[in-house]
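An example makes the point: we let one protein speak, the chain in one-letter code, the fold tokenised, and here it is:
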Amino acid sequence: MDTQRNVTQIDPITFALVRNALDSLVDEMAYTVIRTARSEIVKDVMDFSTAFCDRYGRMMAQGKTIALHLGAVPDAIETVLSMYGDDLHPGDVIILNDPYLGGMHLPDIFMFKPVFYNGELQGFAVSITHHTDVGGRVPGSNASDSTEIFQEGLRIPPMKLYSEGKENETLLRIIERNVRVPDLVIGDLFAQFAACTVGEREFLKLVERYGPEMVSLYMEELLDYAERLTREEIRKWPKGNYRFVDYMDDDGFQEDPIPIHVNLTVNEDSITVDYEGTSPQVKGAINPTFSFTKSCTYLSVLCILDQSIPNNVGVFRAIEVRAPKGSLLNPEFPAAVAARATTGYRVVDTMFGALAQVLPDKVPAAGEGGNSVVCIGGYDQSRKPFIIVDMVCGAWGGRPTKDGIEAITNPSQNLSNTPVEVLESKHPVRIQEYSFISDSCGAGEYRGGLGIAREYRLLNKEATLQLRADRVKIAPYGLAGGKPGRKASNILNPQTENRLMPGKVSMDMYQNDVIRHEQAGAGGFGNPFKRDPQLVANDVWNEKITIEYAKREHGVSIDPITFQVDPEETARLRSAEVTVK
């Protein structure tokens, strides 16, 4: 059958079946990872992703997993195809993690399993997993204060983990001998392999049912369909240039804020995103690779597109991304990139700030600034290694018609907080507090979500602590008159020395040391004095805000005994605010 595009050949029912089969396939791959993974960061925090690509390496579908991973798949598979295009066989499995060969940072290991039918390449099952450790100078391989890629761990160029079904024992031994927790790392690699095998199996069922030519035809149409819908939406947007700037606090070495500039141009049916003016690459390990920058940019646009548009690279065709070579968002080798996600979150915030000017009724205020990482690693009394990689998830910004949400993953991710019981049962730590921070939300007609506090006491003799946090100096912004959220903080031994720590640091901890991380609150949306007084009273009753906050930020007077609104005093406070303005 001729697979040349011909719309008259496309049956809408078959099209929907193929599309949904691909979506189900990648989600089944994700469930397989969760069921078979060994580490907490995968099975509890869920820091992994799944996808399926066609024979040309074009991403056709992605699982409901880490959104920020998957815009990087095209660059990674392009590297694989350039190295192995004529040397791919049934039973092959290729892995890579090198950020300068299509990867993102070293803990994220990409896996590609080519899928063959009757000896012909049909596509690739793809999984990406954040591994607990890949060696390097610190446990977890994720420090923000590394200064070059060589300090960050084992770099794997595209290599065959399996060749025609035969395991590459040499490569496995190299990985095993270069990581601190080989049982977890190798176990999670096999979980990825299991997921890719499931993807292969389910895709071949689709090919068996419809035939390879028909499936290829419908996948081609699926890409074109996503592109058409994306361009149709962009045609409705107001044309012009929209600029925004947001900042990283610092890189752990220089103290000055690090600017991220975006110039978003809405064309007739496409957009151009240019990061000219952004800081040069920095010494610390917060430089995201250009593939990751593109991923953050695509995600930002996807968040405000109609959710019925297929999640594939057809969408990307309408989005051009530029970033100067040697800049923070397109660093040159051997820049350190381990903590690049922190900057990625700020890229999303910067894009949202620009998109809010285009579609103000669709874009929320800034969230908590992305998940913070608290990493504690060392050796217990029996010299057995332990590594905690805790991704603290926080809050969304106030939305145009709703409050922000707290205790939830950043919208650019699909992560989860590690359960306290898991941390305490597997590692020598005690979680002394896990709570919302009252008054941390940015005030608005629709308030931001509350920040989270998490407090860790070390029970081991000693350990290495790594903190990766931002929004310590520069608060998450509000929109449409909403107020910024409360800033983040790190405190060592809050009940004794109460030492304020920087956002990004690696240091030694000793037995009974306590590290307290307070995540930023999210920004508010709209005029805080227009907030429904009863909603303010509800927040006071639920201890999300105090009576003093309600009066100061919203002009609402609450009775401290009954928690009822005093309507007369509230009217006076709000009229006084209007008079002052």
